[in-house]
């Protein structure tokens, strides 16, 4: 219980800090300076920002997917005895009164 409360507090602080942060560009200062000199460069800078953000978030999406699959398997293994009881009860049919 204590660890889940601590994890929730850390998550809340991280979320609060991210909401208070100003807009951030994913490029380094040199890349931004080199690309913002022309209209074509500004368009490329926007696309570069999206590509960098995609590379940043994709490992987290993959890790969350793997974690979700493993969590579902764990829950499935935990619920297997209950599922077997339910199937057996349904096969017997309703009880006579």
Description:
It contains three helices and no strands. The chain has 97 residues and is mostly helical. The protein has one domain.
DSSP strand count: 0
Helix content: over 70%
Largest sheet: none
Beta-strand content: under 5%
Alpha-carbon distance between the termini?
45 Å
The low-confidence runs, each spanning 5 or more residues with pLDDT under 50, are: none
Q: Order of SSEs, N→C?
A: HHH
Instruction: Quote the average pLDDT.
Output: 80
* Class by SSE composition: mainly alpha
Principal-axes geometry comes out as: elongated
Radius of gyration: 25 Å
Show the helix and strand layout.
Blueprint: H1 2-20, H2 29-35, H3 39-92
Helix pairs in contact: 2-3
What attributes does this structure have?
about 100 residues, mainly alpha, about 80% helix, elongated
Question: In summary, what is this structure?
Answer:
The protein is 82% helix and 0% strand. The chain is mainly alpha-helical.
């Amino acid at each position: 219980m204590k660890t889940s409360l601590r994890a929730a507090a850390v998550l809340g602080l991280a979320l609060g800090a991210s909401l208070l942060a100003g807009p951030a560009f994913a490029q380094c200062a040199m890349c931004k300076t080199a690309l913002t000199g022309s209209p074509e460069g500004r368009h490329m800078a926007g696309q570069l920002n999206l590509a960098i953000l995609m590379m940043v978030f994709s490992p987290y999406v993959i890790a969350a997917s793997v974690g979700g699959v493993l969590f579902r398997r764990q829950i499935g293994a935990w619920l297997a005895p209950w599922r077997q009881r339910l199937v057996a009860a349904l096969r017997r049919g309703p009880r006579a009164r």
